[in-house]
Amino acid sequence: MPAFDPTTVLELLGLPTEDSLAACPTRSKVDAESVFRVLLSRELGAATSRRVEAALSEAGWFEPGVLAASDLAELRQFLADERIRLGDVALAKLRRLAVWVDALRVEDGSTSIGAGVDDESLRESLRAVKGLGPATVDAILLRGLGRAAFPVERAGYRILARHGWVDAAAGYDEARAVVEDAVDGDVAVLSALEAAFERVGREFCRPRAPRCERCKLRTLLPPNGPVHDELD
Length: 232
Hints:
- With about 230 residues, this protein is an all-alpha fold.
- The chain folds into two domains: about 5-25 and about 150-220, Endonuclease Iii, domain 2, CATH 1.10.1670; about 30-145, Endonuclease III, domain 1 (Orthogonal Bundle).
- It is about 55% helix and about 0% strand.
- Helix 10 (about 155-160) crosses helix 12.
């Protein structure tokens, strides 16, 4: 099985390499708001989450404990007044996110999350929170908390499997470890790879009929082409 080389992947895609990313600042402030924004984006999508986030932030809903203590009727009325119309499912998700964020607070109620806890212990604690799947947990660790974690979305799994970097039967943690081990804890590189995989998956590495001939990563495919043409 060929080894996954993150530097080559980023170079082929014309993205920053490990050398240029080395000087990137890491997150200096970790708080509940950072985690909430990650969850908001994943639950509601980029465009909707930006509108909701701006309205909630301006009105003070991101103050500690405010959103988690509110009820759905109050939240629905506020969003309606702001001409942000969300369905009942989206509203319920938004309310649930606030409860999740409160569950992630440290015991003294401060907004510092996961302080002094190693990555694996924090991952285990987050996975114990009802409703948080493995990829969401790793997205929180990487983008919300600045930890060396890689969220393996379906697009990322397809890329890894089709290039032969992981077996098609590999579990989530096995696929995650392939990427994390290759970057030796470099958070900036992991962030660049997450964005790269999302773009490649959306534009080229689709579940059916992948567009390998137009993808810049085609030179990294096995000699006989992608290992699997059809992957969810």
